[in-house]
Backbone:
């Protein structure tokens, strides 16, 4: 067999990656099956990150693969505006059936970033349609991540994502403070007891701008990209109360937390707090085909659809909104979640995952461990003058040792598959333990 020709690595400008360092020592995946990747050298790697929070059912799930193959041969694409495809309607019906009560409408996007910007635009359009068009301020939270488009970046609160684009961030945006505090919550399991009072910071922001100017508050129920910041007990409930008091829409960005990652269909279900708008992506199609969805309550849809029937109600959409192949992947994914009882499965392994992860307490440089559902974070003390170096070295060592996790700065992130065996969970944690012990 002739060897596969190696492509020139230079032309591809990789996302969120130090390109020059990567290309000197590339990590390239060639195939995947179930819980394992195979790299260029034929080496198997256990995927402890479920793709990029995407693939909780495992890679190349046969039912999703079959659905995509069938669909791409039957209807590859059809016009998305003024014409629809059968799969998009079927998927929207399934999504609302799974959603918390009151969510009746779904707008499809191609990614989480597009879902975030779509949600913000719907919030603005909603207030305007109700004659409350001065409500234009959008409120996010420090350390929040809502993707990389201008809206999501502006309400987001992760410094490096904003720094180079500072002058172009949306005007009229403010942020409430984040809830992370090592002295008060380090090594909490699940939701920290401390910190519900931090929701009062939202009242401060409301008092500063006046509620009559504020359209929406957007938060992730659990901050993912910032490093698994779990909401304190009572905190989300209080945000909901403040939104209700002031007529402000509450948007939950559930791009990570929807579809099983927290052992429930939605973070809203897990925490018992129902927002007005929910954004999703990742788990919607198990990562197989890019797709996002924005779910809204009936009242929001109604407010926006009471003009003349022949006129477009919302001047927004993407060429690939409701793409038939993505929708087919989504339908198959939701069906597999149901057949395999994936959300209950994820919930069932939450406790052993938590116990194993917390067994890393006391390992070198570990200053915090936090987890909820199948989301885990291990925070390391940064090396003097080299923030992120230690985390990256641990990631690299684990990778070389056959386990894929993620490092974001000095926070190691874990997102195991929903059907992970005890052996697999142990292997992920023990591989990281070895890496920690070998990393100065
Ligand atoms: C909460 C949240 N919102 C939005 C996004 C952006 O999604 P995408 O990368 O699909 O644009 C992400 C991605 O990780 C996310 O975690």
Residues:
């Amino acid at each position: 067999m002739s060897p596969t020709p190696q492509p020139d690595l230079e032309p591809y400008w990789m996302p969120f990656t130090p390109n020059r360092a990567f290309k000197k020592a590339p990590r390239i995946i060639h195939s995947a099956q179930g819980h394992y990747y195979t790299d260029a050298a034929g080496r198997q790697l256990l995927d402890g990150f479920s793709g990029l929070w995407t693939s909780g059912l495992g890679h190349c799930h046969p039912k999703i693969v079959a659905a995509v193959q069938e669909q791409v041969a039957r209807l590859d694409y059809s016009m998305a505006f003024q014409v629809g495809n059968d799969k998009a309607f079927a998927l929207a019906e399934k999504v609302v059936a799974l959603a918390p009560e009151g969510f009746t409408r779904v707008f499809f996007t191609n990614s989480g970033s597009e879902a975030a910007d779509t949600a913000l635009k719907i919030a603005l359009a909603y207030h305007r349609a109700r004659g409350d068009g001065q409500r234009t301020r959008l409120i996010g939270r420090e350390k929040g991540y809502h993707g990389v488009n201008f809206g999501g970046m502006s309400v987001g609160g992760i410094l490096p994502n904003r720094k180079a684009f500072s002058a172009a961030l949306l005007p009229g945006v403010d942020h409430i403070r984040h809830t992370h505090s090592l002295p008060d919550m380090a090594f909490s399991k699940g939701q920290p007891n401390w910190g519900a009072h931090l929701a009062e910071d939202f009242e401060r922001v409301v008092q500063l701008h006046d509620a009559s100017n504020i359209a929406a508050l957007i938060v992730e129920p659990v901050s993912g990209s910032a490093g698994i910041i779990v909401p304190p007990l009572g905190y989300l409930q209080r945000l909901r109360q403040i939104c209700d008091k002031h007529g402000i829409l509450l948007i939950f960005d559930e791009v990570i937390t929807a579809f099983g990652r927290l052992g429930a269909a939605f973070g809203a279900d897990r925490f018992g707090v129902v927002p007005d708008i929910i954004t999703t992506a990742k788990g919607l199609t198990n990562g197989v085909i890019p797709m996002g969805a924005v779910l809204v309550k009936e009242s929001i849809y109604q407010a926006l659809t009471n003009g003349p029937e022949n006129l477009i109600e919302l001047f927004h959409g993407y060429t690939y909104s409701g793409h038939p192949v993505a929708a087919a992947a989504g339908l198959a994914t939701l069906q597999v979640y149901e057949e395999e009882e994936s959300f209950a499965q994820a919930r069932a392994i939450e406790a052993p995952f938590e116990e194993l992860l917390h067994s890393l307490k006391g390992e070198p440089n570990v200053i915090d461990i936090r987890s909820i559902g199948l989301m885990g974070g291990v925070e390391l003390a940064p090396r003097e003058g080299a923030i992120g170096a230690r985390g990256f070295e641990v990631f690299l060592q684990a990778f070389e040792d056959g386990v894929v996790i993620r490092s974001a700065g000095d926070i190691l992130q874990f997102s195991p598959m929903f059907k992970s065996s005890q052996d697999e969970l142990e292997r992920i944690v023990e591989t990281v333990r070895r890496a920690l012990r070998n990393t100065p």
